[in-house]
Amino acid sequence: MISLPPLPYTEWSETKDTLHLFLQIIGKIRMKTHPKLNHWWHVTLYPHISGLTTGRIPYGDSGFEILYDTLDHRVIITRNDGRKAEFSVPGLTVAGFYDAVFSRLAELDIAVEILATPYDNKSTTPFAQDTRTRAYDAAAVSRFWRALCSISGVFEAFRTRFAGKQTPVQLYWHSFDLVVTRFSGKPHPLEGGRQSDREAYSHEVISVGFWPGDDTFPEAAFYGYAYPEPVGMNQVELQPAPAFWAEKNGGALAILKYEDARTAEDPSAAILAFLDSLYEGAAVKAQWPARELVHAHA
Q1: How many angstroms separate the Cα of 59 from the Cα of each of 33, 50, 64, 105, 114?
Q2: Which residues, including other chains, have CB under 8 Å from residue 141's CB and lie 6 or more apart?
C-alpha cells in the first residue's frame, strides 16, 4: 500500500508553473536530440529515484542524460565518458535556468538548438527573456516528486495486465501529466488538428494519467479517456465511488480526485480500481478484443 503526500494546488501553484517551464526546457532538448519515436514517445521524461530524467539520449557515438534532481534541487548532465556538469536550481529565473542548462551542455561539448519558447503554456515569453522572479518551494517540488514515484509504481502494476502495445510510464512536459496509454492495434487517423495531434492520435487508444491541476481545474487528479470516444462512454460505471465523469473539449473524461485517492483506506487499490474500471468499461464500449490483450502472468 502506498502513502501519498498532500498536494493542495493553491499552496504550490506558482511553484508548479516554475517547475513546468524548467521541465519544458529539458524536454525540448530531448525532443530535438533523441531519434523520433511514434506518438511522440521520444519527447517524454521519466520518474527517477531522485527526480525526473530524460534517460539516455544518443549523441554521436556517445550519449548523455539530464537529471532534474528533486531532492537536492540540482540539474545534473552526464555524458557516457563520465564527464558531468551540474547547477543548483532554487532562486533561478526561467532565463537563468535556460542559460545554466545550455552553458553546461556547452561545457560537455553537446550542441543542441531548440525552439526556445514555452509550448501550449500560459506563459508565452521566450525562455531567454523570462527574467522575472519566480516562486520555487523546494519542499513542494519534493512532495510532487514523491507522489509521482508512488503513482508510477501503481501505473507499472496496471501495465503488467496488458499484452498489447502500450506506452512506458512517462511524463509529457507540455501538458505536465504522467501517462500510460494502451492501444487496440487498430488505426484511426485523426482528422484535422495540429500535426502533433495527428501523430499522437493515429490509432485507437485508451489513456489514463495523473496531473497536478491547473487554473481551470485547481486540484490534482487522475483521469482517463478513449479515442475515438465510443457511444455511451460516460455511462461506464467508475470505481471507486468518488470517481465521476466530466466533459473536456466536448468529450467524456473520467476523473478521480487525487485527494479522494490519497485519503482512501488503500490508496493504491483505489487508483487501480479507477484505472481498471475505466479501461474495462471503455474497451467494451469501443469493442476492443479485450480478452486477446490480457497478460495472463503467473
Answers
A1: 7, 24, 7, 12, 15
A2: 12, 15, 19, 70, 73
Report the alpha-carbon distance of residue 7 to residue 62 in Å, rounded. 39
Predicted local confidence at residue 72, as pLDDT: 98
**Residue 103 belongs to a domain:** yes
User: Do the Cβ atoms of 75 and 89 come closer than 8 Å?
Assistant: yes
**Residues ≥6 apart with Cβ < 8 Å to 259:** 6, 219, 220
Domain tally for the chain? 2
Question: Are 125 and 193 in the same domain?
Answer: no
What is the grid cell recorded at 21? 517551464
User: In this structure, is residue 197 part of a structural domain?
Assistant: yes
Predicted local distance difference test score (pLDDT) of residue 248: 85
Give tens-digit pLDDT for 254-278: 999 999 999 999 999 999 999 999 9
Q: Is residue 126 exposed (0-12), middle (13-18) or buried (19+ Cβ within 10 Å)? A: middle
Cell numbers for 33: 536530440
Same domain, 198 and 250: yes
206 is written with which cell numbers?
485508451
Q: Contact at 8 Å (CB) between 206 and 158?
A: no
Q: Please tell me the distance from the alpha carbon of residue 63 to that of residue 73, in angstroms, as a whole number.
A: 23
Mean pLDDT, rounded, of the chain: 95
Please, are residues 208 and 226 in contact by the beta-carbon 8 Å criterion? no
Residues 6+ apart with CB under 8 A from 82: none
DSSP states of 213-250? --SSS-S-EEEEEEESPPTTGGGSPPSSTT-EEEEETT
Give 248's strand partners: 251
- Using the predicted structure, report yes or no on whether residue 298 has a pLDDT greater than 70: no
Report the C-alpha gap between 40 and 55 in whole angstroms.
15
Residue 134 lies in a domain: no
Domain span at residue 65 reads 9-129
Query: Identity (one letter) of the amino acid at 194?
Result: R
**What distance, in Å, lies between the first and last C-alpha atoms of the chain?**
21
